[in-house]
Amino acid sequence: MHFSTLALTATAALTPLVHAVGNAIVHNNCAQPIYVWSVGSAVGPENTVNPGAEYSELFHSDPSSGGIAIKITRTENGLYDGSAQTDFAYSLDGNNIWYDLSDVFGDPFSGTSVVVAPSDTSCGTIDWSNGIPPSGSQVKVCESGTNLTLTTC
User: Fold this and answer.
1) Which of 114, 123, 121 is nearest to 142 (CA)?
2) Which residues form the signal peptide (predicted)?
């Protein structure tokens, strides 16, 4: 009996812990479609998100860049024509998900609300009530099993 208890303890110590992984979700609350790309070291396909619909991906890491940026424009093919974009970035780090929000080439949601809300209410929300990023860092961290929902408009 003592041997089997010792063997089970040793096996458990060698077994890696499996952590729950949440989702990055983009909910389009605008009256027109938005366009979404998942970008790490490679650019994923363009996804059209119609009004009321969502884009979702399981948190993952990129072996080259480390993090992922979900790039959002209000114009089709906007990633390639210099359109203003909102970047919803995350980095999966074991038990944690680090997340941030920023704009590039302008503010595509100026005048409307942009919010990143975690399913775990003890984590930080990013809230741009007028669609324009405030000054200072917006980086937040939460447990990796949390879902993060970015809602536009």
Assistant:
1) 123
2) 1-20
**How many CB atoms are closer than 10 A to CB 25?**
19
Span 80-85, average pLDDT = 97
Residues 6+ apart with CB under 8 A from 133: 101, 102, 103, 107
Q: How far is CA 34 from the centre of its chain?
A: 16
Shortest CA distance to 87 belongs to which of 98, 71, 74, 99? 71
Residue pair 88/108 in contact by the 8 Å Cβ criterion:
no
Span between the terminal Cα atoms of the chain, in Å: 63
pLDDT digits (tens, 9 = 90+) for 104-114: 999 999 999 99
- Report all structural domains of the chain as residue ranges with CATH numbers, in order of start: 18-152 (2.60.110.10)
Q: What is the rounded CA–CA span in Å between residue 145 and residue 59?
A: 9
The residues that bridge with 119 in the sheet, in sequence order, are: none
